[in-house]
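Crash report, auto-generated. Payload:
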Amino acid sequence: MTPTPEEIAVMVRQGLPDAVVDVRLYSGDDHFEMEVVSAAFAGKSRIAQHKMVYAALGDHMREAIHALALKTSVPKE
Amino acid sequence: MSETVLEQIDQVIKGNDIVLFMKGTPDFPQCGFSQRVGSIVSSYGVPFAAVNVLLSEEIRQGIKDYSDWPTIPQLYIKGEFIGGCDIVSEMQENGELAELLAPLKKEA
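Recovered output after restart:
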């Protein structure tokens, strides 16, 4: 069952408590676009940052992750 | 996951400057994300090796174990995992990909 954008945002914030999450559906009901801003990303490669988000989403999100266009960044000073 | 699959994957990645593990082929992609990365890499006019993971379930799962990354497509440049569709698209937009691929044009 495809999660809702809000469910995904909640999962991300559980893993990254300080994260600012902007997630929305695009093209149909199972493709997502998400931007995550968190200080926890500081000094980490883009790949490591994305892995942190995937870890927060957990295994049962595997289907959602496939159709997820993710952008991660560190909060602007 | 048998050692040989991971070894095979490692050899392909180390043996080619640019390797794209994708669903389908550059000419006949079977997934929008794979198609997007294939066309992005092709737009730089540098040769690249494409591995159609749909032909082998072992490779399809093996590459995810190899990089500890849950999705396909996966792009590798000079043996290094660069990312999937969203990261490659972002790197194209901000010019990072052009920097990585430029030196490979001269060599080719």
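Post-recovery validation: Chain A has a mean pLDDT of 89.
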